[in-house]
Amino acid sequence: MTAINHGTTGLQTLSWRADRINSEQANHKGYTGKGAHIAILDSGIDSDHPDLQANLGEGKAFYHSCNTLFDGRSCSETDTNGNTCHYSWDDDRDHGTIVAAIAGAINNDSHVVGVAPEVTLHALKVLDCRGVGDYLATAEAIVYTADQGWDVANMSFAGIEIEVVRDACKYAYQKGVLLVGATGNRGCEGCVSYPAAYPEVIAVTASASNDTLADISSTGPEVELTAPGRYVRSFSANNPAVVTGTSAAAPHVSATAALLMANGYLNATNIAYDASGSLTQESYDDPGGVRGKLRTTAEDIGLTANQQGYGLVDAEAAIAIGQRGSISTNQPNRTTWESITSEGSFTNPVTLMGPPSTNGGQPSHMRVRGVTNESFEYQLEEWAYLDGSHTAETAHYLFMDAGAYTMPAGMRVEVGDIQTDNTFSRQNFFQTFTTTPVVISQAQTVNEAAPIVTRNRHVSSTGFDVRLQEETAGGNHASETVGYIAVEPGVSTLNGVPFEAGFTPDTITNNWASITFQRVYEEPVFIANLHTYDGGDPAALRYQSLSGSAVDIRVEEEQSVDTETGHTSEIVSYLVFEGQDLI
User: SUPFAM superfamilies per the record (predicted)?
Assistant: First the structure.
């Protein structure tokens, strides 16, 4: 094996890589890699570098120690970087330190900050002072990584196909290690080097700041992702450095994976081998876990599949648990549906949408369907007695992965779904809230064409009742999937996004009433629905005069049987988020 050498200019330039893969945003949201472990299989790591020391874990040299050549001879002065060998695994070439810094340099006032600035870095020295290593030593280091239970193995080196390394990669992959490899710097098509070319390894090419492919990148069908690798800021044992190579690209992917694995994600959830001992095509195409997440959230930057694979790694999209935003649309007829595609990809998302604004006088509400991992469809739905055409309205949405979340302030959030029809069904929370939560629900499907809203009642710390409600002139309704979010009331942040959850008093009727927010929002996203079932007539909410500090709401009844629109007082649950973007 040989290190994939890169040019080092020794110049200081403005860092673009963290901004381009949105790792700074991920760090700001609290994803720092703390608790995750990356094995840097390389020339070692400088053991006393002040920007790495706090994150250094274990170290081990395989077959040759610091200042020892591949063949056992001592390194000459021209071979080494002059770094002091405090340990056998110290870096005598700089390559491993440069790679480790890209992945996990601490966040301070000098040099650069790593993609995962609190990850634990383990120095497994498999390359000598000339950047050469032994295949058997490399295989042993991969197996060692798996046996330690570490999360990620970064392999910024290149070699030929050889069985002992392939077997080690298979062993580690099945043991839960995410394997990341640099494709090589030969700049040719169809020449991805090993171990990156093995199906168990994520093969990474290098991109430039203008989203072109770094021309040194080896490409081919094995390529899975691309990452910044041209003129990337890092540092060596003794100096700052600006480097180019797929060696520099790979640790961006390794560290992004660590951000996820620090929060309990597995390397893959679909690992299967056929009778010949090869990874099945199905499990390679649909690995699930972190590997799948990195693929589905990668950004297409317009390169070919052999150059970028699934695209440019995106740390913020990878760690996202949802997205919030707004739409403004009219409804030309009942059959028209619009769609929203998220910037992220989620395992089992729920869509909550509305209420709509009040530009048109006909009663209307939001309806969604076709919820997938990355998108959903919506429309402004009028009741069946109306013509279905509606003027333009604005509505806000929350698209969020199902699960249980705890906010920094201790507030608890739960997102899930339930099957129900026009009769009330009880949904028990899968966690116990410390107080009665705010609950917002929404039908996710259209199994029957009749317009509906959801109505909630009997909300407690353990669960709530929910039903579908057609207009008065309607009848029974087929079962639909209803998504919900339950949030303990208060002000907090959700994955770094400021938000609040609250109730109104039991005073909201068909007359306009104002909600004053607990903080001021520059670009509020407002979602609400009825919390109680005090009035049985079919009804939904409408809003007007939304500002950064308040909004007006009212209960709007349908009129399929009579023209009376008076509605008894209800409690309203609401959420307010800052801005429109990923959560």
Answer: Subtilisin-like
pLDDT digits (tens, 9 = 90+) for 523-560: 999 999 999 999 999 999 999 999 999 999 999 999 99
Residue 9 has pLDDT above 50, yes or no: no
Q: Respond yes or no: is residue 254 known to be catalytic.
A: no
Q: Which residues contact 72 (CB under 8 A, 6 or more apart)?
A: 64
Of 114, 129, 121, 181, residue with least CA distance to 151: 121
pLDDT per residue as tens digits for the range 55-69: 999 999 999 899 999
pTM for this prediction:
0.89
67 contacts 75 by C-beta, under 8 angstroms? yes
Query: Which of the following is catalytic: 37, 95, 122, 365?
Result: 95
Q: Given 3-state DSSP classes, what are the helix, strand and coil percentages for the chain, each rounded to the nearest 5?
A: 15, 35, 50
Whether 460 is catalytic is: no
| CA-CA-CA-CA dihedral for 513, 514, 518, 519, to nearest 10 | 150
* Residue 7: pLDDT band with limits 50, 70, 90: very low
Beta bridge partners of 318: none
Query: Looking at residue 536, what DSSP letter applies?
Result: -
Do residues 505 and 571 touch, judged by C-beta distance below 8 A?
Answer: yes
Sheet holding 232-235, edge to edge: 7-8, 240-244, 232-235
To the nearest 10°, report the CA torsion of 208, 211, 213, 217. 50
- H or E segment at 292? helix 289-296
pLDDT tens digits, one per residue of 122-147: 999 999 999 999 999 999 999 999 99
d(CA 70, CA 126): 9
**Residue tagged active-site, from 15, 37, 42, 43:** 42
Mean pLDDT of 273-293: 96
H-type helices in 175-264, by residue range?
246-261
Question: Helices marked H in 362-512 — which ranges?
Answer: none
Report d(CA 125, CA 92) in Å as an integer: 10
Phi, psi at 200, each rounded to 5°: -80, -10
Q: Let me know: does 443 contact 421? Beta carbons within 8 Å.
A: no
Mean pLDDT, the chain, integer = 95
454 SS3 class: strand
**Which domains, ranges and CATH numbers included, belong to the chain?**
2-318 (3.40.50.200), 322-582 (no CATH)
> Which of 43, 156, 207, 247 is the catalytic position?
247
pLDDT at 205 over 70: yes
Tokens standing for residue 294:
């990195």
Active-site residue 390, yes or no?
A: no
Q: Among 571, 480, 475, which Cα is nearest to 528's? A: 571
Q: Are strands 178-182 and 223-228 parallel, antiparallel or unpaired?
A: unpaired
